[in-house]
Amino acid sequence: MAEKNLTLVTEFLLIAFTECPEWGLPLFLLFLLIYLITLLGNLGMIILIHMDRRLHTPMYFFLSHLSITDICYSSVTVPQMLAVLFKHGAALSYTRCAAQFFLFTFFGSIDCYLLALMAYDRYVAVCQPLLYVTIITKEACLCFVAGAFVAGLFCALVRTVSAFTLSFCGANEIDFVFCDLPPLLKLACGDTHTQEVVIIVFTIFVIPACMTVILVSYLFIIIAILKIPSAGGRAKTFSTCASHLTAVSLFFGTLIFMYLRDNSGQFSEEDRVVSVFYTTVIPMLNPLIYSLRNKEVKEALRKFLSQLKWS
Fold first, then answer.
1. Whether the Cβ atoms of residue 30 and residue 286 lie closer than 8 Å to each other
2. Is the CB of residue 244 less than 8 Å from the CB of residue 115?
3. Which has the least CB within 10 A, 201, 265, 288, 296?
4. What is the Cα–Cα distance from 88 to 79, expressed in whole angstroms?
5. Quick one: pLDDT at residue 151?
6. How far apart are the first and last CA of the chain?
7. 175, 284, 261, 160 alpha-carbon torsion, rounded to 10°
8. 191 by DSSP, 3-state: which?
């Protein structure tokens, strides 16, 4: 028995949703539709920003990179989820699981940093409008985005190395849709305290740090908006931030639920539902949020569609 318990795991079995095989095909079709909408919506946003000169501003520069990241972020997990649903389970090698965890963390971290940068951009636009063109320059935008990618790479490396220095022995079934931290911790054997501390510490450099930038930025934005004498002026100024605030609330709300609460290595049905939401639904919603709630994007889309009509 001791030898059996110490047998190291060389592959993981993803078995999410397999307890109800009759739901396999409907869920497969649903997530496939969501994934296609995600790809088309984000690609459409990138093309729209590239083609319309009115959208060649720092805010939309960050938004185009957010769309690129959302495509990658979703593509790391959703095809694997579709394979699990189609085959009623899927085997994933130890190396592929580690690669998926790294890429998911990498693109997820970049999403967090980009949302924080967009909040800072809105802060400068509302609170320092006369200095906006000198602070948020093209060179500064490139440096900000490059910094987001470097920081995301560093956090992904540290979290992946920390997670996969754990020993996995015995059970290898993951009742989840991809290799994420909570289900991996549940399968780990031996003392995981050191790795958990390292992972939590470096998580602080992503979620709370980005949330602090966002909250402080919007605190100053709200103060500036309240100083505007006319109600129409206040509404117009706030409308420029509404789309970003909606996206931030959805994304960080689900991440907080998953990673910044004390789950003590436990994993529940709620975790699985929330993980599906932030890996599949949110990347699909982002382009819809920015297109439906943003006047400039709607005008650019209307112009683009009219050009297609008359071409």
1. no
2. yes
3. 201
4. 14
5. 93
6. 73
7. 70
8. coil
pTM comes to: 0.86
Each residue's pLDDT tens digit, 148-182: 999 999 989 988 888 888 777 767 787 777 887 77
Determine phi and psi for 6, rounding to 5 degrees. Answer: -95, 5
CA-CA distance, 307 to 310, in Å (whole number)?
Answer: 5
Which burial class, exposed, middle or buried, applies to 146 when counting CB atoms under 10 A from its CB (0-12, 13-18, 19+)? exposed
Strands 188-189 and 167-168: antiparallel
d(CA 164, CA 167): 8
Q: In what order do the strands lie in the sheet containing 90-93?
A: 90-93, 11-14, 173-174
In the predicted structure, residue 265 carries a pLDDT above the cut 50? no
Amino acid at 157: L
- Higher-pLDDT residue of 276 and 259 is 276
- Closest by CA position to 8, among listed 188, 199, 195, 267: 188
DSSP H helices, the chain, are 2-5, 24-51, 58-87, 94-127, 132-135, 138-163, 181-187, 193-204, 207-226, 231-259, 269-276, 282-292, 295-310
Q: Which residues contact 88 (CB under 8 A, 6 or more apart)?
A: 18, 21, 24
Rg (CA), the chain: 21
